[in-house]
Every structure is written in structure tokens, then in C-alpha cells.
Specification:
Elements lengths: L9 H60 L5 H27 L12 H23 L7 H89 L9 H18 L3 E8 L2 H8 L1 H17 L6 E6 L2 E6 L4 H21 L8 E8 L5 H20 L9
Antiparallel strand pairs: 1-3, 1-4, 2-3
């Protein structure tokens, strides 16, 4: 049973990757929305605080106009102060309404927390009392006593109103700072979630994909190794097959010619293989062939090459070697092969016939093999006729 983290199909990989990208895109979108919302809120809070500061300034201007109207003034001065008072009251009322209910014209949305709404509600009676008293002072029919009473009312209500506005501004500022803190925490949370998403993406997408790719690469390399072995090596004996041996044979000849060295070619044919197959079966014949190849390889130098040309025939190229040394090497192989037969108590003789020929720098590969084969065949026939000391060359 496969682990849940392993990607089974390309479709599953695509779904996981799209899901991860969607989550990251959603987190980025949420982050941008939060940032824009926070900036909008901060801008709105700044406007609110600005308007609240204007309310303080307007209330002070109203108080100033009220006090000035109590003094001895010329008709023109009184008219100017009354106009300034009326304009200040109108702007004051408008600003107060904008703070409480919003004003799209100046970018006030009118969103307030319950705490600020309650504070405006508590401060509203003082605002109305002060505004109404100031508006009453615009009338010319008031007696001096009535005017003084209204002035005293304006001054008293202004003090309470300003204290309430200060509390409202402080509350706005505190809530604005808290919004910034919340936004920062949300940003940190989004950053953590994004990081976790990336880690999960690495764990459940890229790591399984890397594992699958590594396995695919390993399988490919093994497949290539098997293909190379199948294409270049004989499956029964593990030595070069005919095609690859001829390629390496050609390379050895070129190397010998370049270095002006002697190369010796030995052509070997196992004795009695047909009789072994007929009497003991092809399984035994295969063992005979495989055992002979192992003995040959064990008694060769590393720089020499060997190939199975087919059936019971082998060829060996001995690099930088004289015919005399090559003959001694083959005799050593023959003795080792006979000893193997004795070691395994085989009821048949294990040996081979061989012919060797030296490369003189001119012959082609096929010519050398044919000549070595002819010498081997002549030796085999002479051995069948019990000719002593049959030459290998």
C-alpha cells in the first residue's frame, strides 16, 4: 500500500499544485484586502480626528464671537461678528452631523464603534445647548440680562463639550492604534499560513515529485545498464557477445598499431560439448560453457578481452603479448579447466582446442579470426588423430 504523500498520477500532482497555488493566491488577496482596508480605516480615522479638531476650533470661535458681541461695538463691527458667529454655528453643526452620520463629500463613512456612538450621544445635549444659545444671541430683541444668561450658558456648555470631544478624539486614536495592531497580527497570521502552505507544498508536492523523479531516474539508469549489458554481453557467460567483441577487437588492433605493439588473437572451441548436451542435457552443456568462460577470464590479464562468438566458440585478444606468452596462457587455462572437471567430479573431459595468431598491423578483424579459426580447427583434427604436441600457432 502506497503512502498518502506519494504522488500516484500526474493528475494528482496537478490538483495538489493548483490547490497550493490557489491557497497562496487567496492568502495574497486577503493580505492585500486587509492592507487596503487598514489604509482606508487609518485615512478615515485621520479625517475624523481632523474634523474633531475643527469642532474644537469652531466652538472656541463661537465663544469668542459671543463674548465680542457683549462689548460696545459699532453697527458695522456688530454685524461682522454676528455674520462670523452665524457661519461658525452653521459649519459647527455640519461638522457635528458629519462626525456622527458620515459625509461622502469629505470621505467620512460614519462608521463608529458602540463606545464612540455612546460618547457622541452623551455629548450631544451639550452641543445642542451651546448651539441653540449661540443662535439665540443672533437676535436683536434680547435684553442685556437675557444676553448675559445666554453667554454664561455658552461658556459653561463649551467646557463640557470640549471635554467630551477630547474624550472622543482619544477614543478614536486608541481604536485606530488597536486596528493597526490587529492588522499587524493578521498579517503575521497570513504570513505564517503562507509559510505553512509552502512547507506543505514542499512536503506533499515537491518532495514526492523529487522522490518519483529520483526513482524514475534510478529505474532509467538500471534499464540503461540492462540494455547495455544485453547489447554488449553474453547472457550465459557474462563475457562480450560477438557484436561488442568485434567492436572492442577493432579498437585493440588500432591501439596496437598506434603503439607498434604485438597483439595476439586466440580462437578457442570447447571439446566434446555436443556429446555433453546429448548425454547429460543442455543444462549441463550450459554449465560447461559458463564454467569454461569463468576459467578463461580468471586466467586473463585485465587489459585483455574475451568474447563468445557463438555456441562453444570463444575468442581472446591479448594486448602487447608475444605468441609464446599467449601459448603459455592458454596452456594454463587448459590445466585450470581440467582441474575444474575433477573438482566437480565430471564424467567427461573438460578442455578446448585453440589456435593463436599474431597481428602484424595489416590484417582485418575477420581475416585474423578466420586464420585463428583455421589453426584451431587443424589442431582439433590433429588431436582427434592423437597427434602429439599439436602446435597452437
Amino acid at each position: 500500500m502506497m503512502m498518502s504523500g506519494i504522488i500516484k498520477t500526474p493528475k494528482q500532482l496537478r490538483h495538489r499544485y493548483l490547490l497550493a497555488l490557489s491557497i497562496i493566491a487567496l492568502l495574497l488577496l486577503i493580505s492585500q484586502v486587509l492592507i487596503q482596508y487598514s489604509l482606508s480605516e487609518q485615512l478615515g480615522d485621520a479625517r475624523v480626528i481632523n474634523i474633531a479638531g475643527r469642532q474644537r476650533m469652531l466652538s472656541q470661535r463661537i465663544s469668542k464671537c459671543v463674548l465680542l458681541l457683549q462689548g460696545t461695538l459699532s453697527p458695522q463691527e456688530r454685524a461682522a461678528h454676528k455674520q462670523e458667529l452665524a457661519e461658525s454655528i452653521a459649519l459647527w453643526r455640519k461638522s457635528n452631523h458629519s462626525l456622527q452620520y458620515g459625509d461622502s463629500g469629505i470621505g467620512l463613512l460614519g462608521r463608529k464603534s458602540p463606545t464612540i456612538t455612546a460618547m457622541f450621544t452623551r455629548n450631544q445635549p451639550h452641543f445642542e445647548a451651546m448651539a441653540q444659545a449661540a443662535e439665540k444671541l443672533l437676535e436683536d430683541t434680547l435684553s442685556p440680562a437675557e444676553r448675559q444668561a445666554l453667554v454664561d450658558l455658552v461658556m459653561r456648555q463649551q467646557a463640557v463639550f470640549l471635554q467630551g470631544m477630547d474624550e472622543i478624539v482619544f477614543q478614536y486614536d486608541a481604536e485606530a492604534r488597536w486596528k493597526v495592531i490587529i492588522t499587524k497580527r493578521l498579517e503575521v497570521a497570513i504570513m505564517l499560513i503562507t509559510g505553512i502552505t509552502l512547507l506543505l507544498e514542499a512536503r506533499f508536492i515537491f518532495y514526492p515529485l523529487e522522490t518519483k523523479l529520483q526513482k524514475s531516474l534510478h529505474d532509467y539508469q538500471e534499464s540503461q545498464t540492462r540494455l547495455v549489458r544485453f547489447a554488449c554481453f553474453d547472457q550465459l557467460t557474462g563475457v562480450y557477445n560477438r557484436r561488442h567483441f568485434l567492436e572492442e577487437f577493432q579498437n585493440k588492433l588500432l591501439l596496437a598499431k598506434q603503439r607498434q605493439q604485438i597483439a595476439v588473437i586466440a580462437y578457442l572451441d570447447l571439446d566434446g560439448l555436443k556429446s555433453v548436451n546429448d548425454e547429460y542435457g543442455h543444462h549441463e552443456g550450459d554449465w560447461y560453457i559458463s564454467c569454461a568462460a569463468t576459467v578463461m577470464v580468471q586466467n586473463m590479464r585485465e587489459r585483455d578481452i574475451i568474447g563468445r562468438l557463438g555456441g562453444d566458440e570463444f575468442a581472446i585478444v591479448l594486448e602487447n603479448c608475444s605468441p609464446e606468452v599467449a601459448q603459455a596462457t592458454l596452456q594454463q587455462m587448459t590445466l585450470a579447466l581440467q582441474n575444474k572437471g575433477k573438482e566437480y567430479h565430471k564424467p567427461y573431459n573438460m578442455s578446448f582446442s585453440a589456435g593463436i595468431i599474431a597481428y602484424n598491423g595489416e590484417e582485418e578483424v575477420e581475416t585474423l579470426l578466420q586464420n585463428a579459426d583455421s589453426i584451431m580447427y587443424r589442431q582439433k583434427q590433429q588431436r582427434k588423430m592423437n597427434v602429439p604436441n599439436c602446435p597452437l600457432v
